[in-house]
Amino acid sequence: MAPAGPRSGDAIFASVERVNAELFTLTYGAIVRQLLTDLEEVDEVNKQLDQMGYNIGIRLVDEFLAKSNVSRCVDFKETAEVIAKVGFKMFLGVGASVTNWDAEGTCCSIVLEDNPLVDFVELPDTCQGLYYCNVLSGVIRGALEMVSVPSCASLSLVFSSSS
Amino acid sequence: MGREVSESCIDSLLTEMVSSYCNRFYANKPELAARRIEAIGYQVGHQLSERYTMERPRFSDHLEAIKFICKDFWSELFKKQIDNLKTNHRGTFVLQDNRFRWLARMSLDPTAEEGVPQDPAALAESKAAQAMSMYLYFPCGIIRGALSNLGIPCAVSADISNLPACEYPESYVLCVVMHACSLCSNGHCHGQL
């Protein structure tokens, strides 16, 4: 029997158990709001969101590897593409694209077209400097660390919606 | 069918939220951790109930509102309804979900005996039981928040149990006890935790 090839993000998303995205969006929003109340400093909240994401990512990567069947990526560019096309799709149900590569190929932007985390979210002026989606950076950082992608300490990903 | 995300997203977010509050932010203050987790749930329940009742007329009485929670609201969240609703007609309601999705991912023997754990395995199990009960503050908060938005201040607590006849051997029964506070007319109810 021929070995199964890598699966598309759409196919995986269609095959997993799915839940109401509003529950997810509002839970995340409530967590951020509570963190802002408890920690007060925006920088501290950013740090905690990243840490939470990291803890999630180190476990979530197992599910990713098991379901996506991707082979080892040859370089960071391929890694970024896989994260954007398969990773985000199979968990959040949204596609992402990779742009803004720097000359060395070590830094890029991953743009989510339609981020479920930010549905209905408006940040007041008092939250300047809050990286609302920082949990996503942490997830990716944790996941990559588990598959031995080096230099993750300086990984910082930019998330923006098209609006 | 509205927008969806994979179930792992909400599972991992909730697990990490409970873990962060219990083990990092309020490591030696389980009471405070519990209040925060419940407060997060309250926020979510309040907002969801707002959204899901936008196009409805007001509920005529408490029972109608609670039936809404058991049927439509629970279905939106868990794709199933509450299996059993009991009341003493004096303000206390018991909601029972025989296959509570969120508990399905946790492995814990709910029939573990009470008593002082002596060995590491039992200690680990009692820690797991503690984590489980912390986790349950979140759905309690959701219910309290949802009902509060419908004008019913209440106290909500939850328990897991196994049905004696082992009808549902592989799943965990969530029993939510809800006491509607007729005395708390100002909307502030210090729920039992």
UniProtKB/TrEMBL annotation, chain A:
<dbReference type="GO" id="GO:0030008">
    <property type="term" value="C:TRAPP complex"/>
</dbReference>
<dbReference type="GO" id="GO:0048193">
    <property type="term" value="P:Golgi vesicle transport"/>
</dbReference>
<dbReference type="GO" id="GO:0005783">
    <property type="term" value="C:endoplasmic reticulum"/>
</dbReference>
<comment type="similarity">
    <text>Belongs to the TRAPP small subunits family. BET3 subfamily.</text>
</comment>
<dbReference type="GO" id="GO:0005794">
    <property type="term" value="C:Golgi apparatus"/>
</dbReference>
<keyword id="KW-0333">Golgi apparatus</keyword>
<protein>
    <recommendedName>
        <fullName>Trafficking protein particle complex subunit</fullName>
    </recommendedName>
</protein>
<dbReference type="GO" id="GO:0016236">
    <property type="term" value="P:macroautophagy"/>
</dbReference>
<comment type="subunit">
    <text>Homodimer.</text>
</comment>
<keyword id="KW-0931">ER-Golgi transport</keyword>
<dbReference type="InterPro" id="IPR007194">
    <property type="entry name" value="TRAPP_component"/>
</dbReference>
<keyword id="KW-0256">Endoplasmic reticulum</keyword>
<comment type="function">
    <text>May play a role in vesicular transport from endoplasmic reticulum to Golgi.</text>
</comment>
<dbReference type="InterPro" id="IPR024096">
    <property type="entry name" value="NO_sig/Golgi_transp_ligand-bd"/>
</dbReference>
<dbReference type="Pfam" id="PF04051">
    <property type="entry name" value="TRAPP"/>
</dbReference>
<dbReference type="InterPro" id="IPR016721">
    <property type="entry name" value="Bet3"/>
</dbReference>
<keyword id="KW-0813">Transport</keyword>
TrEMBL record, chain B:
<dbReference type="Pfam" id="PF04051">
    <property type="entry name" value="TRAPP"/>
</dbReference>
<dbReference type="InterPro" id="IPR024096">
    <property type="entry name" value="NO_sig/Golgi_transp_ligand-bd"/>
</dbReference>
<dbReference type="GO" id="GO:0005801">
    <property type="term" value="C:cis-Golgi network"/>
</dbReference>
<protein>
    <recommendedName>
        <fullName>Trafficking protein particle complex subunit 6B</fullName>
    </recommendedName>
</protein>
<dbReference type="InterPro" id="IPR037992">
    <property type="entry name" value="TRAPPC6/Trs33"/>
</dbReference>
<dbReference type="GO" id="GO:0006888">
    <property type="term" value="P:endoplasmic reticulum to Golgi vesicle-mediated transport"/>
</dbReference>
<dbReference type="GO" id="GO:0030008">
    <property type="term" value="C:TRAPP complex"/>
</dbReference>
<comment type="similarity">
    <text>Belongs to the TRAPP small subunits family. BET3 subfamily.</text>
</comment>
<dbReference type="GO" id="GO:0005802">
    <property type="term" value="C:trans-Golgi network"/>
</dbReference>
<dbReference type="InterPro" id="IPR007194">
    <property type="entry name" value="TRAPP_component"/>
</dbReference>
